[in-house]
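Sequence in, structure out. Go.
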Amino acid sequence: MTTYLEAEANPQRNTGSIRLYDEAAFAGMRKACQLTARCLDELAGLVAPGVPTQVLDDFVFDFAMRNGALPATLNYRGYTKSTCTSINHVVCHGIPNEKPLKEGDIVNIDVTLIVDGFYGDSSRMYPVGRVKRAAERLCEITYRSLLLAIEEVKPGAHLGDIGAAIQDYAEAERCSVVRDFCGHGVGKIFHDAPNVLHYGRRGEGAELKPGMIFTIEPMINLGRPHVKVLSDGWTAVTRDRSLTAQYEHTVGVTDTGCEVFTFSPGGLDTPGIVLDPINL
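Output:
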């Protein structure tokens, strides 16, 4: 049975209950998420062939310090970097290092900044130089699946509606949906209830209520959906080494629909990827 709790009246830890945030919290999330979105905007000018992902990580740390924020991943459960950089067949949690990006790579950069106790969580795909059409198409499909999922977010809908929107679209495009990782509640806790699956059936799962805040972050593969985690304990890769892509937004359920906190202030939600002008 799903339980819902007023966020401010309950402990700052994941209890399994879904928190309902008030307008003051929504304002706090706007501030944190827009700072994260600005950081991702500025990264677009840094991603290029020959640039090590450690340079991108250093930028995120410096950006956070300049803006009175903290990178949420730094020292989180032993993770030692300020961001995650996942390249080509890396599904998520790729660890920045000194290896340079190569022409034709695609890289997901996942940033979460803490501002006044609120967590702003978002990620985008970045092409490295000129990329093959298959990689560009995968990024298009992944971002469109996220937009379709966001359209489902409204009071009275269910978490299963979100997953079904992603799964139906991605599989119709002959791609697969990663099932080992999911979106999550967020606010004053990094990873909170509910889990937001990127596959499912309409009408199933917890009902969406005003005040809920969570991420939607589909991971879509060109090949099969299966993944494995490498020996570092973090890096998740496709088992068949097929290309994978991910986009992530943080959203809040309002009285009338949905607010997306992490839209790019510079219109760079898909940097370097031009979406075909078709109606969703």
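Check: DSSP finds four helices and 17 strands in the chain. The two ends are 34 Å apart (CA to CA).
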